[in-house]
Write a structure and sequence with these properties.
Length: 292
Amino acid sequence: MRVLVATDSWRGPHAGAGLDSKTVGTALARAWAELGDEVAVIPMGAAGQGFGRCLEQLTGVRPLCPELPPAGSDRWSASSRPLADYLREAAPAGTQGRVLEIAATPWRDGGRGACPAIEGPVTLVTTRQESERPLTGLRGLVSVEGRAEGMDPARMLSLDQQLCDWAQQLTGRPDAGTAPGTGAAGGLGLLVSALGGQVATGPEFLMDAAGAETTAAAADLIVTGCQELNMMTLEGEVVSAVTELAGRVGVPVIAVTATSSVSARELRESGLEAAMPLGASDAGPVARTWHW
């Protein structure tokens, strides 16, 4: 039997200071390995929530993770220039395979200030919400955040037009900013995409780096999990990414967790076969139940 383990980190009162994804995954994998099964472990984490450590464990590469200044009184006039200064020092132009981990930013300039320091393909790893954001248009940054702030409509139109003009300058298309992901990291996604890079979530990037699609397709069972399984963590980046992977390859997937408040119906709707409690920190009973 072949098993793929890709679980979130465990943090909370039952996990003490917390256990990273690889530690949890290795412990779970041991239970199946003791039954003679072949087990693969992929460390998983979202941007700002363990991604960098997981990437280093998986590939030996550390992502660029800048410490950004706090947001000022008006993020719409803030510049991404501090990112350019950071990149010039940490990863000069021409550095291959640059991975930039940014969960949130204090600017909304579409990456204009950072442009001089990004001359080639870069991978921007960010949160799922950010990775789905367009920069301009009715669902763009200005429209969504401006309305939430109660911004004057005239200023909203002006700011959105400025970003459209920037998209035109970068790509030759004023509507380029309406694509999902271009609004990621305050619009840095537009610049990254225009220069041949990609915008991804942490789990997406890690699974791609590990060749998870191929491994999952050859597996008989996929195991994911988190410290507490509830509706929020069920739809969280790691668990949802793993269940979606299992669905694509047609392999059953279970979640191993300390506690679960999710009903059987909600589990099935999410793609999970079951949520298995980890008794006394021993995964042996779970492995024996899901072994054939």
